[in-house]
Amino acid sequence: MVQLDFAAVLADWPLLLRGAALTLALTAVAAVLGVGAGIACARARTHGPPAVRALAAGYVELVRNTPFIVQLFFIYFGLPSLGLRLSSETASIIAMTLNLGAYAAEIVRAGIDATPPGQLEAARSLAMTERQVFLRVVLPPSLGRVWPAMVSQVVIVMLGSAVCGQIAAQELSYSASLIMSRNFRSFEANFVAAGLYLAMAVLLRQALAWAGPRWLFGRIAPTGR
Amino acid sequence: MIEFSVWQILGNLLLAARWTVALSLLAFVGGGLVGLSLLVTRLRGWPGAATAVSAYVHVFQGTPLLIQLFLAYFGLGLFGIDVSPWVAAGGALTLYASAYLAEIWRGCVQAVPRGQWEAADSLALNFGEKLRHVIAPQALRIAVAPTVGFLVQVIKGTALASIIGFVELTKTGTMITNATFRPFTVYACVALMYFALCWPVSAFSRRLERSMRRDH
Q: What is the CATH number of the domain that holds A144?
């Protein structure tokens, strides 16, 4: 007979809450930096000189074709031998940012590629500089077009951050591991963690779907009066 | 500390890569079978089936694969089953893959125009015949590229099996690191191995996608 004891796990709720908070914090920082890196990389791949294009493509392919856990271990365990010692939280943020950046680059690029040529011509005929064309005409609607895919990717990175517990970043899965080492309720601890991750995924998805149109690619405020 | 040359490291990792490939294939094929039955259940239109399948997909897409692996590992243990890493990792990855594949393929089936279903109905085909002769041939053409693309996801996912003690590429990398104290070289080699496995699959999927777009 299987006896489950969830009370033993839930008694440690402050630990779970702290873990969930760190997971969200890591995700928030990585999301901002990663989407920024993705936009820069997408611009490099569409507008940059050939060498920069190749470099950006190499980065994207390298990250997309290796597992996140290996990237994380390489940064956390491998880089110190080059004299770069990182805390587990910093290493987690760097790995998550690099990871999200590569996927975001491909997502943003798809949006940029779908820009109607007429809009570019119209912008250039207004004597906008290339930089203005990109930031004001190309980028906002491109982000709008691909926002659902971007939101999914950020959620995937948040779920992927469970691995950061393996380098002792004290996020949610680490809390679960800590609880199971205390009371040996391994299944229950992970079950509760899974429930929390699921709730966080739903909330994050809704928050981003709400925030995107308002702050990132909504109507650009008119500059004239 | 043990001295390993880079060639010895690569040789050992290459041997370990067999298990990454084997686990990936197991999860991909198993996930394909379960995913297909989920999809068919959904298409059947039984009451509640669509809700149940979509809840299943949401749960697996909304929780970390790592936690799913832990749940499989410790959950089977609760029933007194002696859990080998093969069973836990194979089982969890199969369910994980099935949720994603069911969702990918649902999109492909939806891309088949409604008129095709109606035409099949008007020919008095039963459910199995409709799927086999009308819907599947058209949906399959659309499904090939994203399905091959998802294989990359599965290969990368198997790296997490290392945490529950499945000795594959990543676990072997960790073990060699512990013996040699050369994490930089070893994890770089591990990453290269994964790249060598995944990149051809990604490139193949992209080529399929391009040729599909050309045909239309």
A: 1.10.3720.10
| Alpha-carbon span A45 to A38, nearest angstrom | 10
Asked if residue A134 is part of any domain, the answer here is yes
Quote the pTM value.
0.92
Which parts of B63-135 fold into alpha helices (H)?
65-78, 85-110, 114-122, 127-129
The per-residue pLDDT for range B49-89, each reduced to its tens digit, is: 999 999 999 999 999 999 999 999 998 888 878 788 999 99
Range of the domain at A182: 9-216
Question: What tens digit of pLDDT does each residue of B90-149 get?
Answer: 999 999 999 999 999 999 999 999 999 999 999 999 999 999 999 999 999 999 999 999
For B18-168, which CATH class? mainly alpha
Does any CB of chain B come closer than 8 Å to the CB of residue A64? Answer: yes
Residues of A within 8 A of B149 (CB-CB) are: none
Q: Which amino acid is at B77?
A: G
Break chain B into its structural domains and give their ranges.
18-168
Give the pair of three-digit tokens for residue A57.
């493509």
B198 in A contact zone (CB under 8 Å): yes
